């Protein structure tokens, strides 16, 4: 036998008991039983449960919405208005356009979730647009780097020439569509366009507007083929609060272009601008014709105040509004310029715009009627003043109705708004609701 034990063996023998003991005393991790696929995702992603770290799941678009976006991107109107798309289709291989190219040139793809895979569009075409669109998959060519190497000039020059592959889509009648787009005119498309307002909240996105309009025209009633060529374009006019260059967001109004002027005329007649159709008449009239589903949709549209106007009339109203707004701005500028030249002691008979700016909306009662203490001796009596105010014409551009606003001077600077309200309400004629609003802050100067 060996007279001694080697050092390495001794250290190993001493360490083994401690390791065995710790292994026996360490509790085994509990096994979590997973009963559904959702729990699997939660188990494999523990960071998703951390507060503030969970990512919101993007909603997957519906197949019919993706099919509508594809059709609107390749419609006759899109080929007419988008010259770059028209040139790409003319130079394409037998009308086939890559989905990546269509995604870059189309104005409708930004309204869909950017992370939508191309396979979802392929499924939408085969399910809902097989009669109008075709799709194929193109396999990419092998890279030439295997023959020429990664650092050669031939490899770098051929990188752009290599086909990346992917899915391609085309219209079945792409030759006729290209010919119609070249021969169309702006006047033709303008006559087929309508302006929609107060679209229901659940139908304000562009794909939803497509389905909503199709249902109103009874296009898809009782049919499996959702896609139709009768709707050519949907655009969202810019809001006056939008910044220049921003993509317009759905706000309840849109411009819809049809392939036939008959559809535009019919929709404008069914949903007139004024007077608006009532929900009861729409439900009773169209419920028996189009079924319960159409009745609920039209009832919802009428409840929201949905109405349609021809684009020609919409352009006229827009020009009238812009001219009216400019006239008001000119009048305000002229009034401010003339008012700055008047002496401060002059009593202005016009209402004070600043008080209306702070007046809460939704109130219909009159303002408090309080006479100033510094009236000239030639001032008319209260009865004659009220009669004079009653004879004044009602100007829609005026910030206040005549005879409903007064300007009180020489108010003590330590007075607060609550005291003024109690004082004016006690002296106001009629009920306590005669006092509508008091615009005053403590310490505000009220010179004579």
Question: What would your notes on this structure say?
Answer:
- Residues 48-61, 353-368 have a biased composition (Basic and acidic residues).
- Residues 399-448 form the XRRM domain.
- This is XRRM domain-containing protein.
- Residues 1-61, 278-299, 335-396 are annotated as: Disordered.
- It comes from Trametes cubensis.
- It is a single chain.
- This protein is α+β, with helices and mostly antiparallel strands.
- Among the domains are: 63-139 and 162-182, no CATH class; 186-315, 2-Layer Sandwich (Alpha-Beta Plaits), CATH 3.30.70; 353-434, no CATH class.
- The protein is 44% helix and 7% strand.
- It has 18 helices and 7 strands.
- It has helices at residues 7-25, 37-44, 63-74, 76-81, 83-90, 99-105, 118-128, 145-148, 153-158, 174-182, 186-191, 206-216, 261-270, 279-303, 311-340, 353-358, 382-391, 417-427; strands at residues 97-98, 133-138, 166-171, 193-197, 231-235, 254-258, 307-310.
- It has a 4-stranded antiparallel sheet with strand order 5-6-4-7. A 3-stranded antiparallel sheet has the order 1-3-2.
- Helix 3 (63-74) crosses helix 12 (206-216).
- The longest helix has 30 residues, at 311-340.
- The radius of gyration is 36 Å and the shape is extended.
- Mean pLDDT is 73; it is low at 19-27, 29-56, 152-162 and 343-385.
């Amino acid at each position: 036998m060996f007279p001694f034990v080697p050092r390495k063996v001794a250290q190993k023998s001493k360490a083994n008991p401690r390791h065995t003991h710790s292994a026996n005393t360490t509790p085994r991790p509990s096994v979590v039983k997973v009963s559904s696929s959702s729990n699997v995702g939660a188990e494999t992603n523990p960071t998703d449960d951390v507060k503030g770290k969970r990512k919101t799941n993007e909603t997957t678009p519906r197949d019919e919405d993706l099919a509508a976006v594809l059709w609107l991107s390749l419609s006759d109107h899109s080929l007419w208005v988008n010259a770059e798309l028209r040139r790409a289709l003319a130079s394409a291989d037998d009308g086939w356009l890559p989905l990546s190219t269509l995604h870059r040139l189309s104005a409708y793809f930004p309204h869909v979730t950017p992370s939508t895979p191309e396979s979802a569009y392929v499924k939408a075409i085969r399910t809902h647009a097989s009669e109008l669109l075709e799709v194929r998959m193109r396999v990419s060519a092998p890279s030439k780097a295997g023959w020429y190497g990664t650092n050669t000039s031939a490899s770098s020059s051929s990188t752009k020439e290599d086909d990346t592959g992917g899915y391609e889509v085309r219209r079945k009648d792409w030759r006729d569509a290209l010919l119609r787009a070249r021969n169309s005119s702006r006047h033709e498309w303008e006559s087929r366009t309508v302006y929609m307002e107060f679209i229901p909240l659940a139908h304000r996105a562009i794909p939803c507007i497509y389905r909503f309009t199709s249902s109103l025209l009874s296009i898809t009633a009782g049919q499996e083929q959702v896609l139709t060529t009768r709707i050519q374009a949907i655009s969202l006019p810019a809001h006056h609060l939008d910044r220049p260059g921003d993509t317009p967001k759905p706000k309840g109004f849109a411009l819809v272009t049809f392939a036939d002027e008959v559809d535009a005329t019919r929709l404008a007649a069914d949903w007139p601008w004024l007077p608006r159709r009532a929900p009861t008449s729409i439900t009773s009239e169209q419920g028996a014709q189009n079924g319960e589903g159409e009745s609920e949709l039209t009832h919802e549209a009428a409840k929201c105040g949905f109405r349609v106007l021809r684009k020609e009339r919409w352009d006229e109203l827009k020009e009238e509004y812009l001219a009216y707004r400019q006239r008001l701005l000119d009048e305000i500028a002229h009034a401010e310029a003339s008012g700055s030249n008047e002496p401060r002691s002059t009593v202005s008979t016009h209402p004070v715009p600043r008080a209306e700016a702070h007046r809460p909306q939704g109130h219909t009662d009159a303002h408090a009627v309080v006479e100033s203490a510094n009236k000239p001796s030639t001032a008319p009596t209260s009865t004659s003043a009220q009669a004079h105010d009653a004879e004044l014409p009602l100007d829609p551009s005026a910030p206040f109705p005549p005879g409903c606003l007064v300007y009180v001077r020489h108010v003590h600077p330590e007075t607060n708004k609550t005291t003024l309200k109690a004082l004016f309400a006690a002296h106001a004629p009629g009920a306590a609701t005669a006092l509508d609003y008091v615009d005053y802050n403590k310490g505000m100067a009220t010179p004579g």
